[in-house]
Amino acid sequence: MPRTSIPRACPGADRVCAWLGRHQRFYFHFTSTSASWLNAVEGFFAKLTRRRLQRGVFKAIADLQAAINRFLRETNDNPKPFIWTADPDAIIEQVRRGKQVLESIR
User: Fold this and answer.
1) Residue 39: enclosing H or E segment and its boundaries?
2) How many CB atoms lie within 10 A of CB 6?
3) Is 96 among the domain residues?
4) Structural domain total, the chain
5) 20: burial class by Cβ within 10 Å (0-12, 13-18, 19+)?
6) What predicted TM-score, i.e. pTM, was given to this entire model?
7) In a domain, 104, yes or no
8) Residue 1: what pLDDT?
9) Which long-range contacts (CB under 8 A, 24 or more apart) does 38-44 make?
10) What is the distance between the alpha carbons of residues 96 and 19, in angstroms, rounded to a whole number?
């Protein structure tokens, strides 16, 4: 099973693969650039953890399930739409700076 699927056209791909060869316990998991839905799912579970599970004490699986179901009910009773607040120009600038750093590594 391959440990990574870094395209060879990516800057620094050979160095990254060499590093991974020396550090066998690390794996890269790539997501597509259109994976904002994945970010939303991760955000949902982070909110569930912070608001309902983190400091909870559950003596049985049924108690844990009840806490999760209560969180879902409360969240669905008062839904809030996601509003994109990031400035596209700032994102493009960050990508440009990141590309410069990657190119300077070579």
Assistant:
1) helix 36-48
2) 16
3) no
4) 2
5) middle
6) 0.48
7) no
8) 42
9) 40/82
10) 24
Q: How far apart are CA 52 and CA 67, in angstroms?
A: 7
* Domain of residue 73, residue span: 35-78
**Sequence-distant (≥ 6) Cβ neighbours of residue 3 within 8 angstroms:** 20, 27, 28
1-54 pLDDT per residue, tens: 455 555 555 666 778 778 878 888 877 766 666 667 777 888 889 999 999 999
78: Cα separation from own chain's centroid:
25
Distance between CA atoms of residues 49 and 102, nearest Å: 35
Reference 68, options 51, 93, 92; nearest CA is: 51
Report for 8-22, 50-64, 85-99: range of highest mean pLDDT: 50-64
